[in-house]
Design brief:
71 residues, mainly alpha, 3 helices, 82% helix
């Protein structure tokens, strides 16, 4: 049986980070576009706001998670 390696577990945890970011940004852009169409806005203001909010939230979560790992 293979020995459990904590360092490789950390690598595996963050290996899907790009996919998580891509999917969350895609969902935020889709939701913002849905809201823009619903409120019949000429410019995609809500798409930009939802995307920026998701990016900031993702970076805050990543910062929190990385600080928690260091302890």
């Amino acid at each position: 049986m293979a020995k459990y390696d904590l360092k490789s577990n950390k690598i595996l945890k963050y290996s899907g980070l790009a996919t998580q970011l891509f999917v969350s940004m895609g969902l935020a852009a889709w939701f913002g576009g849905f809201l823009d169409r619903k409120f019949q806005l000429e410019k995609p203001i809500l798409t930009a706001l939802c995307s920026m909010f998701m990016l900031i939230a993702f970076m805050v979560w990543l910062n929190y998670d990385l600080k928690r790992i260091d302890k």
